[in-house]
Amino acid sequence: MPVHAQEPVPITNAKEASLPSYPETRRDDVVETIFGTNVADPYRWLEADVRNSADVADWVARQSAFTDAYLATLNEREWFAAKLGEMLDYERFGIPEKKGGLLFYTYNPGLADQDVLLMKPMSGDVLDGNGQVLLDPNEWSDDGTVALAGWNPSAQAKILSYQVQEAGSDWNTIEFLDLATGQKLADRIEWVKTGGAQWIDDRRFVYSRFPEPAEGDDFQVANRNQQIWMHVLGQPQSADRLIYATPDRPSMLHGASVSADGRWLFIYSQDGSVPGNELRILPVEDLAAEPIVVADTMDHQWEVIEAVGDTVILRTDKDAPLYRLMSLDLSAGQPQVEELIAQGQHNMDAARVMGDRIVIDYLEDVKSRLRLFTLDGKPAGEVGLPGIGSVAGLSGEPGESEAWFGFSSFNRPPEVYRLDLATGDSRSIVDRTLGFDPEQFVVEQVFYPSADDTRIPMFIVKRADVTGPAPTLLYAYGGFNVSLPPSFSSTRMAWLQAGGVFALANIRGGGEYGSAWHDAARGPKRENAFADFIAAGEWLKANGVTGGNQLAIQGGSNGGLLMGVVTNRRPDLFDVVNADVGVMDMLRFDRWGYGRAWAADYGFPDVEEDFHVLRSYSPYHNVPASGDYPAILVTTADTDDRVIPGHSFKYAAALQHAELGNSPHLIRIETRAGHGAGMPVSKIIGKNADVLGFLAHWTDLQPD
């Protein structure tokens, strides 16, 4: 639940009664002239971290008390809290990873705050919760906010590396477990944000880290000068060997991976100014050698799928916006990439070498299709899937006879499938009881025209017995080449169980149709994403899916930005809004964390041409002085260090200062939580009961 620092303000009836005055927010006289434009920023003081500023902490406490008092009047919250508990109370299994004849996977019996990590010998065909417990994050903190952010067994499964995340922070600490003794090692790797330990063998690994921030700056420091290091177990981190850095280009972000056989190190580099990346390859046993340069510019995306002997298989969008696979013979005097599997008619969303097969997940109109190829690129069949849905977590290695993958859909919680690589046959290895019947829900895909007549796909999900206009929750993301295929959400299922309709619009800016779909809403073309979403809302109302006062919209992170923009543009179209952890100040987003790396999608605020585009739609800067706005619930977390909560704080303050009608404009601030990852189940239930209760209340959805 949010912060409770004061007695709540009494509110008797949330919808019919007028709200009391919002908590006072100080307005400072801050005005900058940027490229000839005067930009007011009266709430800049709210950018300070709540842990370092007493003024911000006081503002958070007063806003939280006000919001708590309002939400407490919503009868719908109690129903959704109970239903969310039911929807989450089923066994959940992560995709297994096989190492050293052992199977590793995460497990949650249902309502545990955090998943545990289990290990079991390779035997039987069904996953269960009876494996050996290696790590139980539920024992790491009293409030469930210390999470297992990642894990990786060493080459022969002698050592387990794992990443510890506290209060949702992107900062991780890597720690280690001896799998033979169960004892924790003394080694500890700090100032890591992505990637974890990439094992070379059972005692050496590489990892990416940032320099240690100055004291007090770790919460909001801009991430620069990322480097790749090698660690040897038993030595302090201070003794680690620097492998790769670009001090002359401090904005570059570097990541690394190691081939399954431990022979090759792959180094990825990007700065976020464009979507592509550089790629270099080093032999592990001669890391001082001159690297083999696959790409020294960021014109295209390059992803290593695997190395099989001296041949590296790569996925790229070079001359192939729907992606293709290339091969690179490292034993050649001058290695050159050659096409292995050509671009097809559909987006090659993911690929992996497993056994003696290349397994490719194609998105065909945003629905997974899993196909097999030989290592020399010849078609070798297709893996049958149980229906409309998406594949996730391809898991397997070269030389093995079996592999695993996950499958889910809007009405199907994630299942784990075992894949026989010799026959292509697959079967579910999860046996569990669900609290609902998936067949009682209907999944439909439609295509609607955007403002420029581009055909946009949208999924519509509802209970089979729901007819006519109904309260509808419309969701989208539309950025960073992220695809949103059908997948399961307990939160959405609770909305559907209540009789609501859920719609997912696959707007431009995502990766559903390859890099061209992404490019169509980058930089000055971002208007296409906004237009696509507005057109989705118009289509839902014009086609009787939803009616007047029944359309709720929701988006998070980049999708939170989307919510702010479309609400400013069309407050008449949308009836209630949830803007979650959104990027709301488009003129200062690049100052914190990974913000500078978002410029590939947004542009640079300090470049004049980009500034004028960003100023034109920045949600915080475009809240009008007056108007008639729908009910809005802004949601964020006080320790989010990816999109700092100052974005949401400033936006909410601007909404509350303006004269925007009688509907509430509130902010819900989660404590000891970040951008979403690692949030304990108890907090997930509390947050989403509040959000769904608010959306249901303002769309007249009466749970039945």
Chart the SSEs and their pairings:
Blueprint: E1 31-34, E2 37-40, H1 54-71, H2 75-88, E3 92-93, E4 97-99, E5 102-108, E6 116-121, E7 132-135, E8 146-153, E9 159-166, E10 172-178, E11 189-192, E12 198-199, E13 204-209, E14 227-232, E15 241-244, E16 253-258, E17 264-270, E18 278-283, E19 292-295, E20 302-308, E21 311-316, E22 324-329, E23 337-341, E24 347-354, E25 357-364, E26 367-374, E27 379-383, E28 390-395, E29 402-409, E30 412-420, E31 426-428, E32 441-449, E33 455-463, E34 472-475, H3 490-497, E35 501-505, H4 515-519, H5 527-542, E36 551-556, H6 558-569, E37 576-580, H7 599-602, H8 608-617, E38 631-637, H9 646-657, E39 665-670, H10 681-699
Parallel strand pairs: 34-35, 34-36, 36-37, 37-38, 38-39
Antiparallel strand pairs: 1-2, 3-5, 4-5, 5-6, 6-7, 8-9, 9-10, 10-11, 12-13, 13-14, 14-15, 16-17, 17-18, 18-19, 20-21, 21-22, 22-23, 24-25, 25-26, 26-27, 28-29, 29-30, 30-31, 32-33, 33-35
Task: Give, in spatial order, the strands making up the sheet with the most strands.
Answer: 32-33-35-34-36-37-38-39
Number of helices: 10
Label the structural class: alpha+beta
On the 0 to 100 scale, the average pLDDT is 95
The beta-strand count equals 39
CATH superfamily of the domain at 31-86 and 436-699: Alpha/Beta hydrolase fold, catalytic domain
Radius of gyration using CA atoms only:
25 Å
Contiguous low-pLDDT stretches (5 residues minimum) are: 1-13
CA distance, first residue to last residue: 25 Å
Biggest beta-sheet profile: 8 strands, mixed
Shape: globular
CATH class placement of the domain at 31-86 and 436-699: Alpha Beta
CATH architecture of the domain at 31-86 and 436-699: 3-Layer(aba) Sandwich
InterPro entries: AB_hydrolase_fold, Pept_S9_AS, Pept_S9A_N, Peptidase_S9_cat, Peptidase_S9A, Prolyl_oligopep/macrocyclase
GO molecular function: oligopeptidase activity; serine-type endopeptidase activity
EC number: 3.4.21.26
Family: Belongs to the peptidase S9A family.
